[in-house]
Amino acid sequence: MDGVKSNKWNDESPADRAWKCPPDLSRAARSAEQDRAAGGRTNRLVGLDDGNISLASVELKVYAKTRRIRAYVRWSDHGKYPTKYVGEVDGRTRRQNLIQGWRQVIDRELLPPPDTSSRSWASSRAVRSIMRGNRGRDTRPELALRAAVRAHGLGYRVDARPLTESRRRADIVFVGPKVAVFCDGCYWHGCPEHYRPAHRNSEFWSQKIASNKARDQETDRLLADAGWDVIRIWEHEDPETAARQIAEVVMARRLRRPTAVEHSQSDRQPKPAH
Ligand SMILES: [Zn+2]
Q: Is this prediction's pTM over 0.70?
Protein backbone atom coordinates (compact mmCIF):
# COMPACT_ATOMS: atom_id res chain seq x y z
CA MET A 1 0.00 0.00 0.00
CA ASP A 2 1.37 3.35 -1.02
CA GLY A 3 0.05 5.74 1.56
CA VAL A 4 1.14 9.03 3.01
CA LYS A 5 4.55 7.54 3.71
CA SER A 6 5.70 7.00 0.15
CA ASN A 7 4.34 10.30 -1.18
CA LYS A 8 5.95 12.29 1.56
CA TRP A 9 9.08 13.33 -0.31
CA ASN A 10 7.65 13.66 -3.78
CA ASP A 11 8.05 17.42 -3.97
CA GLU A 12 11.20 18.01 -2.04
CA SER A 13 14.15 16.13 -0.64
CA PRO A 14 14.10 15.30 3.04
CA ALA A 15 15.76 17.82 5.35
CA ASP A 16 19.41 17.18 6.20
CA ARG A 17 18.53 16.75 9.86
CA ALA A 18 16.41 13.75 8.94
CA TRP A 19 19.34 11.72 7.67
CA LYS A 20 22.74 13.43 7.44
CA CYS A 21 25.45 12.65 9.96
CA PRO A 22 26.96 15.82 11.47
CA PRO A 23 30.47 16.02 9.95
CA ASP A 24 32.13 16.89 13.27
CA LEU A 25 30.84 13.82 15.06
CA SER A 26 33.74 11.79 16.49
CA ARG A 27 34.12 8.06 15.94
CA ALA A 28 33.11 7.38 19.53
CA ALA A 29 30.05 9.64 19.23
CA ARG A 30 29.01 7.89 16.02
CA SER A 31 29.27 4.55 17.70
CA ALA A 32 27.30 5.80 20.72
CA GLU A 33 24.61 7.11 18.35
CA GLN A 34 24.32 3.63 16.82
CA ASP A 35 24.28 1.97 20.24
CA ARG A 36 21.39 4.16 21.37
CA ALA A 37 19.41 3.63 18.18
CA ALA A 38 19.96 -0.13 18.29
CA GLY A 39 18.88 -0.32 21.92
CA GLY A 40 22.29 -1.45 23.10
CA ARG A 41 25.53 -2.62 21.61
CA THR A 42 24.66 -6.32 21.83
CA ASN A 43 22.07 -5.75 19.09
CA ARG A 44 24.83 -4.59 16.76
CA LEU A 45 26.99 -7.69 17.01
CA VAL A 46 27.52 -9.66 13.82
CA GLY A 47 28.98 -13.17 13.64
CA LEU A 48 31.56 -13.59 10.87
CA ASP A 49 32.23 -16.87 9.07
CA ASP A 50 35.54 -17.42 10.84
CA GLY A 51 33.96 -17.11 14.30
CA ASN A 52 35.07 -13.51 14.81
CA ILE A 53 32.63 -10.73 15.51
CA SER A 54 31.99 -7.30 14.09
CA LEU A 55 29.74 -4.35 14.87
CA ALA A 56 27.06 -3.27 12.39
CA SER A 57 25.88 0.29 11.75
CA VAL A 58 22.76 1.61 10.08
CA GLU A 59 23.40 4.15 7.34
CA LEU A 60 20.87 6.56 5.91
CA LYS A 61 20.98 7.57 2.26
CA VAL A 62 18.90 9.79 0.01
CA TYR A 63 18.88 9.42 -3.75
CA ALA A 64 18.05 12.58 -5.66
CA LYS A 65 15.68 10.67 -7.93
CA THR A 66 13.52 9.07 -5.26
CA ARG A 67 13.79 11.73 -2.54
CA ARG A 68 13.26 9.13 0.12
CA ILE A 69 15.45 8.10 3.00
CA ARG A 70 16.69 4.57 2.75
CA ALA A 71 18.32 2.66 5.55
CA TYR A 72 21.14 0.19 5.01
CA VAL A 73 22.98 -1.94 7.51
CA ARG A 74 26.68 -2.45 7.08
CA TRP A 75 29.57 -4.05 8.91
CA SER A 76 33.22 -4.75 8.41
CA ASP A 77 34.42 -8.26 7.57
CA HIS A 78 38.21 -8.42 7.16
CA GLY A 79 38.48 -5.50 4.75
CA LYS A 80 35.14 -6.08 3.05
CA TYR A 81 31.96 -4.22 3.90
CA PRO A 82 28.86 -6.38 3.49
CA THR A 83 25.78 -4.15 3.19
CA LYS A 84 22.10 -5.03 3.27
CA TYR A 85 19.20 -2.86 2.26
CA VAL A 86 16.85 -2.43 5.20
CA GLY A 87 14.02 -0.30 3.85
CA GLU A 88 12.60 3.22 3.74
CA VAL A 89 12.33 5.28 6.88
CA ASP A 90 10.21 8.41 7.36
CA GLY A 91 11.11 10.02 10.68
CA ARG A 92 11.71 13.75 11.02
CA THR A 93 15.13 13.43 12.62
CA ARG A 94 18.20 11.31 12.00
CA ARG A 95 17.76 9.84 15.48
CA GLN A 96 14.21 8.69 14.73
CA ASN A 97 15.29 7.23 11.41
CA LEU A 98 18.21 5.33 12.87
CA ILE A 99 15.81 3.88 15.44
CA GLN A 100 13.35 2.92 12.68
CA GLY A 101 16.17 1.33 10.70
CA TRP A 102 17.49 -0.62 13.67
CA ARG A 103 14.02 -1.81 14.61
CA GLN A 104 13.66 -3.37 11.17
CA VAL A 105 17.15 -4.89 11.30
CA ILE A 106 16.33 -6.53 14.63
CA ASP A 107 12.75 -7.60 13.83
CA ARG A 108 13.72 -9.12 10.50
CA GLU A 109 16.92 -10.64 11.89
CA LEU A 110 19.03 -9.21 9.10
CA LEU A 111 22.37 -9.70 10.84
CA PRO A 112 24.20 -13.03 11.01
CA PRO A 113 24.13 -13.78 14.75
CA PRO A 114 27.37 -14.34 16.64
CA ASP A 115 27.98 -17.89 17.78
CA THR A 116 27.48 -17.67 21.52
CA SER A 117 27.38 -21.42 22.06
CA SER A 118 30.74 -21.70 23.80
CA ARG A 119 30.76 -20.70 27.44
CA SER A 120 33.86 -18.57 27.12
CA TRP A 121 32.52 -16.55 24.19
CA ALA A 122 31.48 -13.41 26.10
CA SER A 123 34.74 -13.50 28.04
CA SER A 124 36.87 -13.53 24.91
CA ARG A 125 39.12 -10.57 24.43
CA ALA A 126 37.52 -9.55 21.13
CA VAL A 127 34.01 -9.53 22.55
CA ARG A 128 34.98 -7.69 25.71
CA SER A 129 36.86 -5.12 23.71
CA ILE A 130 33.93 -4.49 21.37
CA MET A 131 31.47 -4.34 24.23
CA ARG A 132 33.63 -1.87 26.13
CA GLY A 133 34.02 0.26 23.05
CA ASN A 134 37.80 0.22 23.05
CA ARG A 135 40.66 -1.91 21.85
CA GLY A 136 43.04 -2.29 24.73
CA ARG A 137 42.94 -3.12 28.40
CA ASP A 138 42.88 0.48 29.63
CA THR A 139 39.48 1.90 28.87
CA ARG A 140 39.01 5.63 28.62
CA PRO A 141 36.99 5.89 31.87
CA GLU A 142 39.72 3.93 33.69
CA LEU A 143 42.45 6.22 32.37
CA ALA A 144 40.48 9.35 33.31
CA LEU A 145 39.86 8.00 36.79
CA ARG A 146 43.52 7.12 37.29
CA ALA A 147 44.64 10.57 36.17
CA ALA A 148 42.20 12.19 38.60
CA VAL A 149 43.42 9.96 41.45
CA ARG A 150 47.05 10.78 40.60
CA ALA A 151 46.20 14.48 40.86
CA HIS A 152 45.46 13.84 44.55
CA GLY A 153 49.06 12.73 44.99
CA LEU A 154 48.16 9.17 45.88
CA GLY A 155 50.29 6.20 44.86
CA TYR A 156 48.56 3.03 43.72
CA ARG A 157 48.93 -0.14 41.72
CA VAL A 158 47.08 -0.69 38.49
CA ASP A 159 45.21 -3.87 37.59
CA ALA A 160 46.59 -5.72 40.61
CA ARG A 161 45.45 -8.56 42.83
CA PRO A 162 44.53 -7.22 46.26
CA LEU A 163 44.39 -10.76 47.74
CA THR A 164 47.31 -13.03 47.00
CA GLU A 165 45.14 -16.13 47.45
CA SER A 166 42.57 -14.94 44.91
CA ARG A 167 43.09 -14.31 41.19
CA ARG A 168 40.62 -11.42 41.11
CA ARG A 169 42.05 -8.12 40.04
CA ALA A 170 41.04 -4.59 40.97
CA ASP A 171 41.59 -1.64 38.66
CA ILE A 172 43.27 0.56 41.26
CA VAL A 173 44.81 -0.88 44.42
CA PHE A 174 46.11 1.00 47.47
CA VAL A 175 48.10 -1.73 49.18
CA GLY A 176 48.97 -0.02 52.50
CA PRO A 177 45.54 1.38 53.37
CA LYS A 178 43.84 -1.68 51.81
CA VAL A 179 41.53 0.08 49.41
CA ALA A 180 40.48 -1.62 46.16
CA VAL A 181 38.80 0.37 43.40
CA PHE A 182 36.84 -1.17 40.53
CA CYS A 183 35.86 0.87 37.51
CA ASP A 184 32.79 -1.04 36.31
CA GLY A 185 31.66 -0.91 32.71
CA CYS A 186 27.99 0.07 32.43
CA TYR A 187 27.10 -2.84 30.20
CA TRP A 188 29.06 -5.71 31.73
CA HIS A 189 28.17 -4.90 35.30
CA GLY A 190 24.55 -3.93 34.66
CA CYS A 191 24.54 -0.22 35.49
CA PRO A 192 20.96 0.77 36.37
CA GLU A 193 21.20 3.90 34.21
CA HIS A 194 22.70 2.49 31.03
CA TYR A 195 22.22 -1.23 30.91
CA ARG A 196 19.53 -2.24 28.45
CA PRO A 197 18.68 -5.88 27.94
CA ALA A 198 19.61 -7.28 24.55
CA HIS A 199 16.96 -8.21 21.99
CA ARG A 200 19.02 -10.92 20.40
CA ASN A 201 20.39 -13.78 22.48
CA SER A 202 18.67 -12.07 25.37
CA GLU A 203 18.80 -15.08 27.66
CA PHE A 204 22.50 -15.56 27.05
CA TRP A 205 23.25 -11.91 27.81
CA SER A 206 21.03 -11.57 30.85
CA GLN A 207 22.66 -14.67 32.33
CA LYS A 208 26.09 -13.27 31.58
CA ILE A 209 25.35 -9.92 33.25
CA ALA A 210 23.70 -11.64 36.23
CA SER A 211 26.76 -13.84 36.73
CA ASN A 212 29.07 -10.81 36.48
CA LYS A 213 27.03 -9.05 39.16
CA ALA A 214 27.10 -12.11 41.41
CA ARG A 215 30.85 -12.33 40.95
CA ASP A 216 31.22 -8.63 41.84
CA GLN A 217 29.29 -9.17 45.05
CA GLU A 218 31.40 -12.19 45.93
CA THR A 219 34.60 -10.22 45.26
CA ASP A 220 33.34 -7.42 47.53
CA ARG A 221 32.62 -9.92 50.28
CA LEU A 222 36.02 -11.64 49.97
CA LEU A 223 37.79 -8.29 50.20
CA ALA A 224 35.68 -7.01 53.08
CA ASP A 225 36.37 -10.23 54.99
CA ALA A 226 40.10 -9.62 54.51
CA GLY A 227 39.77 -6.07 55.88
CA TRP A 228 39.66 -4.18 52.61
CA ASP A 229 37.52 -1.24 51.63
CA VAL A 230 35.94 -1.71 48.20
CA ILE A 231 34.95 1.24 46.04
CA ARG A 232 33.00 0.64 42.85
CA ILE A 233 32.84 3.43 40.29
CA TRP A 234 30.59 3.27 37.23
CA GLU A 235 32.35 4.15 34.02
CA HIS A 236 29.79 6.92 33.45
CA GLU A 237 30.63 8.70 36.71
CA ASP A 238 32.55 11.95 36.78
CA PRO A 239 36.22 11.00 37.37
CA GLU A 240 36.99 14.09 39.50
CA THR A 241 34.13 13.39 41.90
CA ALA A 242 35.02 9.72 42.05
CA ALA A 243 38.70 10.51 42.69
CA ARG A 244 37.73 12.79 45.57
CA GLN A 245 35.68 9.99 47.15
CA ILE A 246 38.55 7.57 46.71
CA ALA A 247 41.07 10.03 48.20
CA GLU A 248 38.85 10.57 51.22
CA VAL A 249 38.57 6.85 51.92
CA VAL A 250 42.31 6.29 51.40
CA MET A 251 43.26 9.20 53.68
CA ALA A 252 40.82 8.09 56.38
CA ARG A 253 42.22 4.56 56.32
CA ARG A 254 45.78 5.84 56.46
CA LEU A 255 44.99 7.82 59.60
CA ARG A 256 43.31 4.82 61.16
CA ARG A 257 46.06 2.37 60.29
CA PRO A 258 49.25 4.25 59.54
CA THR A 259 51.73 2.61 57.23
CA ALA A 260 55.39 2.17 58.11
CA VAL A 261 56.34 5.13 55.92
CA GLU A 262 53.90 7.41 57.62
CA HIS A 263 55.24 6.32 61.01
CA SER A 264 58.73 7.43 60.13
CA GLN A 265 57.43 10.69 58.68
CA SER A 266 55.43 11.45 61.80
CA ASP A 267 58.52 10.70 63.91
CA ARG A 268 60.33 13.52 62.18
CA GLN A 269 57.36 15.85 61.88
CA PRO A 270 54.90 15.29 64.72
CA LYS A 271 51.32 16.03 63.67
CA PRO A 272 49.62 18.79 65.65
CA ALA A 273 47.21 17.42 68.24
CA HIS A 274 43.52 17.81 67.36
ZN1 LIG B 1 26.21 3.78 33.49
A: yes
